[in-house]
Amino acid sequence: MIETSILKWLQEVVNNEQVLLTPINGGANNQGFRVSSGTEQFFLKCFEPHNSRSLSKLRNEYAFASHLCKAEIHNIGKPIAYSEELKVSLFSFIDGQTISKLTASHIDAALAFIEVINTPAIFDESLPVASESPATLYGFVDIIDKRLERFAQLSLNDNHQLQSLLQAIASRTRQIAETVEPSWHEPLQKTILSPSDFGFHNAIETSSDIYFIDFEYAGRDTVWKLLSDFFAQPAIPVPLENITRFLQSAVFSQISQRRQEFVTIYELTLMKWCLIMLNEFIPVIEQRRRFSWNNSCLNINNDVLSQKKQSQLEKSMRYFAHIPEKIKTLDKYL
């Protein structure tokens, strides 16, 4: 149920007291609503009000979307207004469908989007650094270590499957860390703009275009993270056979010259995603999940969360088991 203060703010922004809000299900961290105001449609995004990172994510997303909108990038949600006090933002509504089956045209659209937002005229040094953007190649190891540390603070004695998986990830990460070249400690330049959480799980297809959304973690980034994340994202996997067309793009020319190092970065990124799949076990993220479900019944939420934890653990275990196969496939296309 929407807060009265948010409803009042919304009515003032759209200049209409008669607004209809329809919940949009599927979000993992926030609540979303389709807003009908006369003949106009909007998307209202409500961030978890008690989370310490909500305000920074709200600001970051709105600033990144505003920058792209100013640069006349049209296949995004147009930012309308936001409230730091209420931790909400309003965008134009994209009337389309989620993407479930990928085609070559979808992948071409994703590459075209990255290329267009990375034309020299659009890049802006004043934009923030993207979330988890590593300072060096060794930073990909640090990302995993930091995520593992979050689990080390929890009591997992009764979950042997989870313990075993975390130990396997930690062991393989240490093996990689002990064999990297000195160049892995050299600074990486944040030379591109990245949506950060970029993939077709954050895309909407209309009759005329493909729109990319959700820029909470966006900003200046490295090509290594953008490319490895795009091909590691598990929600709607992109077949690795498509990586050759990305490496032919000028945006990723740096990786084309260091392909074997990218194989290692990709393996680290796959393990990072194994840990991301286990986010439901982290208390602060558990709180965000409960908020996004927009359900006041505690028992239902507890049951859903328990089932979700087990489901995500099983998914992560399968994903980890398939990493050697994915690395072998990547080697073939490089």
Blueprint of the fold:
Elements: H1 4-14, E1 20-24, E2 31-37, E3 40-46, H2 54-70, E4 79-83, E5 88-92, E6 97-98, H3 104-117, H4 139-152, H5 160-177, E7 192-194, E8 203-205, E9 210-212, E10 219-221, H6 223-232, H7 243-247, H8 253-256, H9 259-276, H10 283-293, H11 298-321, H12 323-333
Antiparallel strand pairs: 1-2, 2-3, 3-5, 4-5, 6-8, 7-10, 8-9
Helix pairs in contact: 4-5, 4-9, 5-9, 5-11, 6-9, 9-11, 9-12
Protein name: Fructosamine-3-kinase
Domain Aminoglycoside phosphotransferase: 21-221
Keywords: Kinase, Transferase
Question: Can you characterise this structure?
Answer:
This protein has 334 residues and is α+β, with helices and mostly antiparallel strands. The chain has two domains: 4-92, 2-Layer Sandwich (Phosphorylase Kinase, domain 1); 103-333, Aminoglycoside 3'-phosphotransferase, Chain: A, domain 2 (Alpha-Beta Complex), CATH 3.90.1200. It contains twelve helices and ten strands. It has helices spanning 4-14, 54-70, 104-117, 139-152, 160-177, 223-232, 243-247, 253-256, 259-276, 283-293, 298-321, 323-333, and strands at 20-24, 31-37, 40-46, 79-83, 88-92, 97-98, 192-194, 203-205, 210-212, 219-221. The strands form three sheets. It has a five-stranded antiparallel beta sheet with strand order 1-2-3-5-4, sandwiched between helices. It has a three-stranded antiparallel beta sheet with strand order 6-8-9, with helices on one face. The chain has a two-stranded antiparallel ribbon with strand order 7-10. A hairpin with a 2-residue loop joins strand 2 (31-37) and strand 3 (40-46). Helix 6 crosses helix 9 and helix 9 runs antiparallel to helix 12. The radius of gyration is 20 Å and the shape is globular. The protein starts with a helix and ends with a helix. 32% of the residues are buried.
